[in-house]
Amino acid sequence: GAAPSAAHEVQRLLRPDLRGRTPYGAPQLDVPVRLNTNENSYPVPQVVVDAVLRALSGDMATLNRYPDREFTELRKALTAYLEKQSGVAVTPEQVWAGNGSNEVLSHVVQAFGGHGRVALGFTPSYSMHPIISETLGTTWVDGLRSAATGPDAFDLTPESAARQAREHDPSIVFLCSPNNPTGTALPFEVIGAVLDAAPNALVVVDEAYAEFARPGTRSALTLLADHPRLVVTRTMSKAFAFAGGRLGYLVAAPELVDALRLVRLPYHLSSPTQTIARVALEHADVMLGTVEVIKHQRDRIVERLAELGARPVASDSNFVLFGGLRDEKAAWQALLDEGVLVRDMGIAGHLRVTAGDPHETTAFLEAMTRLAPTHV
Ligand code: PMP
């Protein structure tokens, strides 16, 4: 008979729990205004480009050697940055890094999740939390935000989070603050409530967007000293304007960080990655120079969308989720036809837009102004 098709053979041999799954897939389309993946629209400043190139040229001749497996200098640079940014003192032994915070999250799940264990998150939240958990064999439980008290009620109360944590006795709880895709920071009390309610869980607070939070937002970093089961993840992909550099990190108890060495692949951070990130961190003030402009564009989006009747959710991030759309798929396509790419998160009546530079933001708001009469 005929040889079986490759597609058939792959499906036959694939892990049964991976069959039929679709990969993470934000479209990478060539569109004038790309506001769909919460990147920072501003290029890396020239002084940093120059400094990175100088440092890299010193590295090239030693690429015959494996990199520093413990990324010692990079850890020190991250420690200094965290202390400056958050006011919380941490030590290099409390810091762990990977190729994006996605990799750091996968290390956490590899070490603390796995078959027979439950990870709990509160939907809608960052879509990679369930993907990482499930592809590593961990059972995912989709917790709920709020008691669906209204169409735009995406809040999570300490009581609701604690009740759900008690119910499922998870090994890992994912919190996201500010939350993607809704944009709002969690009430700070949720973190302590979940730590109390889930005594067998590692509690991960994903703070990818922390640098954009509105004044008065308190970081989970401030709780680390008293909570050995707490993990705070961050990334250089957003405020730091460094998504292509692929550098994410976490902060936790030194013993917890130590355990992650059981699962990481040796030399997971290449020498160029370590150098590029370290030099960029040494220029943190310049790298973060666009944060205030972006926050201003975000506030502009919230204000204007509200005027147009498209209900924006309060944002502590560099993006805005907005509702009130008659048909989010039609609105997404209509925006794309206007040259503006935003994100359909699969939430009925809602789309998510990243705050770009002033020109991109204006292009989006002008397109929305034209489209509002038919789509809002
Ligand atoms: N956490 C959240 C909440 C995010 O939105 C993202 C990026 N979309 C990440 C983590 C991962 O980013 P990276 O791997 O680039 O650090």
From TrEMBL:
<dbReference type="InterPro" id="IPR005861">
    <property type="entry name" value="HisP_aminotrans"/>
</dbReference>
<dbReference type="InterPro" id="IPR001917">
    <property type="entry name" value="Aminotrans_II_pyridoxalP_BS"/>
</dbReference>
<comment type="pathway">
    <text>Amino-acid biosynthesis; L-histidine biosynthesis; L-histidine from 5-phospho-alpha-D-ribose 1-diphosphate: step 7/9.</text>
</comment>
<comment type="subunit">
    <text>Homodimer.</text>
</comment>
<dbReference type="InterPro" id="IPR015421">
    <property type="entry name" value="PyrdxlP-dep_Trfase_major"/>
</dbReference>
<keyword id="KW-0032">Aminotransferase</keyword>
<dbReference type="InterPro" id="IPR015424">
    <property type="entry name" value="PyrdxlP-dep_Trfase"/>
</dbReference>
<keyword id="KW-0028">Amino-acid biosynthesis</keyword>
<keyword id="KW-0663">Pyridoxal phosphate</keyword>
<dbReference type="InterPro" id="IPR004839">
    <property type="entry name" value="Aminotransferase_I/II_large"/>
</dbReference>
<dbReference type="GO" id="GO:0004400">
    <property type="term" value="F:histidinol-phosphate transaminase activity"/>
</dbReference>
<protein>
    <recommendedName>
        <fullName>Histidinol-phosphate aminotransferase</fullName>
        <ecNumber>2.6.1.9</ecNumber>
    </recommendedName>
</protein>
<dbReference type="Pfam" id="PF00155">
    <property type="entry name" value="Aminotran_1_2"/>
</dbReference>
<feature type="modified residue" description="N6-(pyridoxal phosphate)lysine">
    <location>
        <position position="238"/>
    </location>
</feature>
<feature type="domain" description="Aminotransferase class I/classII large">
    <location>
        <begin position="33"/>
        <end position="367"/>
    </location>
</feature>
<keyword id="KW-0368">Histidine biosynthesis</keyword>
<keyword id="KW-0808">Transferase</keyword>
<dbReference type="InterPro" id="IPR015422">
    <property type="entry name" value="PyrdxlP-dep_Trfase_small"/>
</dbReference>
<comment type="similarity">
    <text>Belongs to the class-II pyridoxal-phosphate-dependent aminotransferase family. Histidinol-phosphate aminotransferase subfamily.</text>
</comment>
